[in-house]
Amino acid sequence: MKYNTHKINCPACGAGINTTINISVKKTMFCPYCGTQFAIDDGEQVVTHNININNQYTNNTDIEKEKLKTVQKANLLEAIFGTLVCMMIFPCAFYYLYNEKKLNAIQEKQAIEAGQIKVGISSSEMEGKNYQVVRKQLEGIGFTNITEVDLDDVKDNSRKENTVESVIIDGDDFFSALDYFDPDANIVISYH
Predict the structure, then answer these.
(1) Residue 35, phi-psi category: left (phi > 0), alpha (psi -120 to 50), beta (remainder)
(2) Region at 172 (left for phi over 0; alpha for psi -120 to 50; beta for the rest)
(3) How much is the pTM?
(4) Mean pLDDT for the chain?
(5) Count of other CB atoms within 10 angstroms of residue 191
(6) d(C-alpha 9, C-alpha 151), whole Å
């Protein structure tokens, strides 16, 4: 076996490599600095260059620096993108809210001019309250066509007596406190 000590320069990065190798067995080596594989020859020290298909660095500091640069670039891009999104969303949201408020004011004015009245309490806020209190509230607001339906289901003691199960105004069982209806709208209060 033939062991020779050679000083070889990497064809890719030019780094000087001092190495002792068995030339009869090993015909290629990797640069410990840049990771490039290249062929060696025992007679004339002819060096041929191969492409490093793995692009692997053996210097861990360089690897960490490259990772850090990639992360910093990604963070910068995320920050720029987030800023651009905010610059587009906030004006749009402001415009929408401003127009929504303006539209609600117009609809409210039209409802009042048409003789409608605001409920003032949502359907979900009425549920579970005493049905007689809810009826008085609705009458106090100005509603005139109110019907009560006793569900007669308190026998099992799981339900509290005289509490509202649901309130339906003109077929709408899910209304908000800001909704308007005619004073003679058909209101059905179902209670336990």
Answers:
(1) left
(2) beta
(3) 0.46
(4) 80
(5) 25
(6) 96
